[in-house]
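SRPBCC domain-containing protein (Paractinoplanes ovalisporus), 157 aa
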Amino acid sequence: MQAPWTLVFVRELKHPPQAVWEALTDPAELDQWAPFAAERDMNALGPLTLTMVDGDNREDTRAVVRVADAPKVLEYSWDEDLLRWELEPSGEGTRMTLRHTLVGVTDASLVATGWHVCVVVLEHLLDGDPHGVVRGRAAEEYGFDELRAAYGEILGM
């Protein structure tokens, strides 16, 4: 098995940290942009279930919120992986940094592409122009394969 490594994904968003925080923790907002649906608000520490959705297919995964320091740091395990979202004021917006420590996945280009697509959808949601969630096979309609190939080159895969 390959040793864990961390994908670092940084985006400048034109919305304040509190608005971004709500999108990261509120189940109704997560369901509009994230790769999973959350069974509860992620502001509270402790275990929860995140459900991966791909069309009609649903797969429950275990998660544990470890840090919920609003509106600065959200950290949770997602199955074997660890995700840490850091929000910093940046001008009138937010610098959002995602550190996704990959344990069980060998294709980091798939993960990077997935987060790239999700964050584009998140930006639309924050702008008040919700696009609608893009999950699973539906992402192929938005250039997923080409983007994945580009991330594969960047990551040396």
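The chain has a mean pLDDT of 90. The helical segments are 17-25, 27-33, 108-126, 144-154. ok done for today
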